TrEMBL record:
Top-rank taxon: Bacteria
One MF annotation (Gene Ontology) recorded for this entry: methyltransferase activity
Annotated O-methyltransferase dimerisation domain residues: 21-94
Parts forming coiled coils: none
EC number(s) from the headed UniProt entry: 2.1.1.-
Protein name: Multifunctional cyclase-dehydratase-3-O-methyl transferase TcmN
CDD domains found in the cross-reference section: AdoMet_MTases
Residue ranges occupied by any O-methyltransferase C-terminal domain in the UniProt entry: 121-327
InterPro entries named in the record: COMT-like, COMT_C, COMT_dimerisation, SAM-dependent_MTases_sf, WH-like_DNA-bd_sf, WH_DNA-bd_sf
Keywords for this protein: Methyltransferase, S-adenosyl-L-methionine, Transferase
Spans through the membrane: none
GO biological process: methylation
Gene it is expressed from: tcmN3
Amino acid sequence: MEANEERATPTRAARGTVTGLLFGQLATYAVGTAVRLGLLDRIGAGTRTADEVAADCGTHPQATLRLLRALAALDLLTEPEPAVFEATAAGALLRSDAPDSMYALARIFSEPLMTRARERMEDSVRTGEPVFDAIFGTDFFSHLKSEPELSRVFNTAMGQGTRIAAQDVPPAYDFGRFGTIVDVGGGDGTLLAAILRAHPAPRGMIYDSAEGLAQAGAKLAAEGVADRVTLRTGDFFTEAPAGGDLYLLKSVIHDWNDDQCAQILRNIRQVLPPDGRLLIIEPVLTDTVGPDTSALPYLSDLNMLVNVGGRERTRADFETLCTKAGFHLTGLTPLPAPDPYVLIEAAPV
């Protein structure tokens, strides 16, 4: 009997792993529902009863209690007394007014914009193409452009998703030796602002679409660096703006296929001076997945597959892209864990 129990234990644990994964989608939707209803905003920094939260939100009391208890089981809330709830440190990040809020990030990742293509991942795995286009009738970024409110939330989410990198990147690289840093696809300027605050000598430029730059002016002003940054609208598939000696690409390359990425890099190569540098900031996949490998970049890879047709890449993949565009890699600097990003420096050949 004891031997049978020993043999059964790994099977039980394995079943628990699979069951947890199968319910993962419900966790995503529970978080998305919480942010859309503003539950964490209603709870705030104190404690609230489920009935109080339901009254504030205009939701069904028992259904609200059930959602709050699910959030407590996910470690976003605690329930110190029956039907009384308080936010954990993680739950507090879902408040829209939190200084380090992840509210917009949680909202966008639970929107149909992101989730509908995931439901048809099988199609993308069969074809190698993003299924988003077939569902929405256009590509991801064109659809986003047609939805101004969603575009605003997306921009805010990308800024929120960059905050840890904005802490880790500035001290990890010698930005002070450059005259002008051009952040290509830099969005609201969260990263560039952090770099310029830490390094007072360089000036900066953000190059992005009009939609991507929509919140940049306000963000740069709030960070106190607006007078050091030029905003330029344009299409990085067509050209890169001249005038920089360091060009940044954070979370841009993974959005696109190899040919598109090579074109972006070639455009930068055409305007980069001989002593200039390219700095790509992306996760770098290992050649094999080990037992301690984080699943996050591989799940991101699948998200890129179904939604935009891009991919996460290995070091060899980045070397190939850079070679095609007239660059060679000069160094890789991983950021401190748990930050998944690596600083990939390249110089013109």
